[in-house]
Amino acid sequence: METDCNAMELPSNTEFEEDSDYRDFEGTDVKDMRLEAEAVVNDVLFAVSNMFVSKTLPCAEDVAYINVETRERNRYCLELTEAGLRVVAYDFDQTDDRLQTPYHETVYSLLDSLSPAYREVFGNALLQRLEALKKESQS
Q1: Which residues of the chain have pLDDT under 70?
Q2: Given this model, what pLDDT does residue 19 score?
């Protein structure tokens, strides 16, 4: 196999190598759970009363916590890991080790199980989007 350049000729990026926060991630596909949590929040914030990544509970590369208040005014603290999302407490910024709740693969599934109002708002938004696509394709 031919290459256009010799790897020995490439300049090394000393800033990257010296930055211990990134050294362990080189060549791996590691998810940053805080970024994942922010994406989850941005995706469904319109369908709940309040939702934000916890600033009190620790985030790491393998776990993040999300506070959510449903339209029914119920508060939950959610744990986000590679296994999915689950309720870990019935208030913001809390965890209860005695609570054994199931993991959900998606935030949609979890909120669907917790909040009938979420289900309605999300369903209506989906219907409106489908109607807009239908009109767009007809014009």
Answers
A1: 1-31
A2: 42
